[in-house]
Amino acid sequence: MATQALTKGDLATLDVSRGELYADDSWRPLFAQLRAEIPIHYCPDSVFGPYWSVTRYDDIVAVEADPQTFSSSFEHGGIVLFDMQDTNVKLAMFIAMDDPEHGAQRKTVAPAFGPSEIAGHAVALRERTARLLDSLPVGETFDWVERVSIELTTSMIATLFDWPWDDRHRLPVWSDWTAKIDIGPDPVLNAERETHIFEMAAAFKQLFEERKAMPPKGDLLSIMAHSEVMADMDEQRFIGAIALLLVGGNDTTRNSMSGLVEQMNKFPDQWERLKADRSLISTAATETIRLQTPICHMRRTVVQDTELGGQKLKAGDKVALWYNSANRDEAVFPDGDLWDVGRSNSRRHLSFGYGIHRCLGARLAELQLQVLIEELLARDMTVEIAGEPERIPSCFTRGFHHLPVRIRKG
Ligand code: HEM
């Protein structure tokens, strides 16, 4: 679709954080123009206040490689455009900390994401996925988000925490409220958000104390409860650690699973290609995560005056790293809007970030998506979009509230 380029004046005040751009999926040409004309762009006014946008691949890598200048710390406002330091939930999580505290906490939970731990989840994951796909109606319209994406990712997270199975449906509710950054400064919605977060913290705290009193085992709560670094966190750090592991693993993987359906519908030739050549499945999973970019941005705060791409950034400035844009940077990914299941450099995508904060759950996310693709192919299932998708109106979580689909065999 040809879209009119913005004038210089409109570009100068462009605000790519507006939720409607993501609700109606109209953000692509705006970022393409920014990459071409003002790759480091200053937005003077938004619901989140003024902020810089970094839109090219190499510039994002440069920022993430320099955490001394570009801080992630919650004390400066954290990792999303919305400043949380002035609210009752600061989300003091290690993704929103600088070293050394970040490194110490990351090291504590990292063993839960090691290769043998991930491999240990594979059999049960495949069984759950197979059972779920076998239970889906063929030829009837249903919501893929509710029935598949949420169900599978919630089950995985419940397993990681060894969370009471029958109570697992509370997890995505808390996760969704925690990730709602676009409510910005709205006091009523923020109060509601805080109510959910404190309820989540209380429920997890009870389980955490129980695990502490039990001999150590491999789940995330037990690992934290028996560690030197995370056993006695203050309230904000406890909430932060839980929120990170819950949101980190939930909304992101969920929206990749929904993104997979969108891609197979937009690019049926690539789905046929996968059917004919199963050796492409791993690349297809990676390519889905590149194209979906479930986290649109991470934010950093400048802590010492610096220069980036010829622009002068001052201490205190907010910087949004737009992964959705970098993943389509023409210099790295030719025809970046295409789902190319044989793309040779798909793995270079920035959906998992880069540097010291690169996603700890990346391998687990890829595995979940790979297994889903494998099991769909094994059943010769094609998932057809059967109605208008409802997209999340957010510049942070990129994905779907609802995605009506119909399954066809063959
Ligand atoms: C497709 C799925 C996923 C995407 C797109 C994703 C994306 C991200 C991004 C963008 C970051 C920040 C990177 C940076 O600042 O450079 C991150 C960090 C993180 N992710 Fe993921 N993630 C996914 C799945 C998961 C899963 C399944 C888990 C585990 C339950 C997880 C846990 C984490 C943790 C703990 C961090 C913090 C790492 C640190 O600060 O050192 N993520 N993820």
TrEMBL record:
Keywords assigned by UniProt, alphabetized: Heme, Iron, Metal-binding, Monooxygenase, Oxidoreductase, Plasmid
Transmembrane portions of the chain: none
UniProt keyword Metal-binding, yes or no: yes
Alphabetical list of Pfam families matching this protein: p450
Stored InterPro entries: Cyt_P450 (IPR001128), Cyt_P450_B (IPR002397), Cyt_P450_CS (IPR017972), Cyt_P450_sf (IPR036396)
One GO MF term attached to the UniProt entry: monooxygenase activity
Cytoplasm as UniProt keyword: no
First and last residue of the signal peptide: none
Similarity remark: Belongs to the cytochrome P450 family.
Protein name: Cytochrome
Organism: Sphingopyxis macrogoltabida
